Amino acid sequence: MKQILSKLLSFAGYEISKTPNQNDVDLYLKLFGEDSVNNRCFYNICVGGHWGFGGGFHHPCWTNVDLLKKNSREFNPEKDIAHDLLSLDSLPIQSQSAELVYSQYTIEHIPNNAVLRMFKEVNRILKDKGVFRIVTPNIELDYIAYMNKDISFYEWIDYFSQPHIYENHGYKSPLNQSSFEQIFLSHFATNASTLHREGGHKRVSDEELIDVFNTMSLEDALDHCTSRCSVEVQKRFRQNHMNWWSHSKLDKMLNEAGFKSVYHLIPGQSSSPVMRNNAYFERNWNCVAMVVEAVKY
């Protein structure tokens, strides 16, 4: 059976190969020491509902910090930390104890006040020279695609047109049956869209969206739309988006949280050698990603 499958894959241009152990534990030990490795002083912060616990991220040196959710394969209650970013509570982690903090596709799922609270908490828990790495969709890429009517940018349309997927996300209908305006809107203010069956009190129609982007600055137009999102609805549909991020907005908020050294990167680049490992970091949706690192000094 394996030989038949191998031949079929070879015919299609693929091959079967064994994945090597790529967790870099020896490098972690060399750079950070046994205490940090044994105590898992590397924290992956997520918000629940998107790619599972910790953004679908699991590593023997890392601790996932995420919403406690049943039937998650990634979250280990004996090792990981249950925490809801929407609660605005402090992270249950000792000050100046973290070596690295990573957060992938998280801050687009929570409002500004929750993001600022999270950033301040990350600054608190990091050791001096500790690195905070953030991956989030770049709204400028969305906007360019919207202005160019580039439907191919939204490559997840077919995925979100499957009944069990769009229904689970709270959509009333398949994404491929939606207007281009609502597809654009749903990527940064999902429950403000007319697509959502339980969305915010006052949805943004196609006509209103066109008007605000024609008459307001880009940031004001984006804020106008996200202001229509409901946090209570977001709590029920954690995988939806309710925020937008550009380099300038992210830099400003990191500075406000106490980070003075902020760097703009691309997937695979990092000031920390262990976070250059693409077996764990930036494995999904790099076509829309913005990568930023902040170092605590």
Task: Report on the architecture of this protein.
With 297 residues, this protein is an alpha/beta fold. The protein has 2 domains: 167 residues, Rossmann fold; 98 residues, no CATH class. 32% of the residues lie in helices and 14% in strands. It contains 11 helices and 7 strands. It has a 7-stranded mixed sheet. β4, α4 and β5 form a beta-alpha-beta unit. α8 packs antiparallel against α9. The longest helix has 14 residues. The radius of gyration is 20 Å and the shape is globular. 39% of the residues are buried. The N terminus is likely disordered.
Any key phrases for this structure?
297 residues; 2 domains; 11 helices; disordered N terminus; alpha/beta; 7-stranded mixed beta sheet
Short description:
By secondary structure, the chain is an alpha/beta fold. Helix content is 32%, strand content 14%.
Give the strand order, joined by hyphens, for the main sheet: 3-2-1-4-5-7-6
How many domains, in number, for the residues? 2
Secondary-structure arrangement, i.e. CATH architecture of the largest domain: 3-Layer(aba) Sandwich
Structural class: alpha/beta
The average pLDDT is 90
Question: Could you give the order of the helices and strands?
Answer: HHHEEEEHEHHHHHHHEE
What is the alpha-carbon Rg in Å?
Answer: 20 Å
CATH class designation of the largest domain: Alpha Beta
Distance between the termini: 56 Å
Q: DSSP strand (E) fraction?
A: 5-15%
Helix content estimate: 25-40%
